[in-house]
Amino acid sequence: MTACSPGHCPKIEFLVFFFIVGIYANEDIRAGQTAEFFNTLGMQEAILTRHATRSPPATHNRNNSREPIDGIFVTPGLHAVSAGYEAFGVGCPSDHRVVWADFTYAAAFGYNSPPIKRPEIRRLNTKNPKMVEKYVGEVRKALVQTGIAKRLFALEAKAEQHGWNDQFQIEYNAIQRLQLKIRN
After folding, report:
1. Between the N and C ends of the chain, which has fewer C-beta atoms within 10 Å?
2. Residue numbers of the domain that contains 37
3. Whole-model pTM?
4. Per-residue CA distances from 96 to 35, 53, 77 (Å)
5. Which residues, including other chains, have CB under 8 Å from residue 85's CB and lie 6 or more apart?
6. pLDDT by 10s per residue, the chain, length 184
């Protein structure tokens, strides 16, 4: 080992890996070979740890002795903020309960990711009458130049004559997209 003085020590980085193992053990996960195996690895069952004071339900519908045979084992340092069992048949048709656990990003990945910033919708500021007047004028001008009103009336007349069909729907959707583009 190399001695170092303050400020002159080599940088040491630690990588921490967490493992989450969901298992159908076909035996009581609190005792037996399954429990022994995961205890040897230092792993603990997330749901039972989270609800240590409660008696777990049976996780198989033919089990009448309240023995969980399904579980979620996690490495030390990873703690579920919530965890539990669903009712039989919830999530998917099965004779087993769905087991679930929820972990924070900070616990699972070592940091909190920044919140997702949703794009802001550009809206017309209706408090400024000059802006409203300008916007309405530009939209009217563009609607007249593109002939949207004429196209809509022509489409309506054709639909009344021949009935609505897929081709008319395609035309209507194209007009609608153009109208939305003009207004934005």
Report:
1. N
2. 20-109
3. 0.52
4. 19, 23, 28
5. 47, 56, 57, 59, 68, 97, 98, 99, 100
6. 455 555 565 555 555 678 888 888 888 888 889 899 999 999 999 998 888 888 787 777 777 788 888 899 998 888 889 998 888 888 888 888 888 899 888 777 777 777 888 777 666 667 778 888 888 899 999 999 999 989 999 999 999 999 989 999 999 999 999 998 888 7
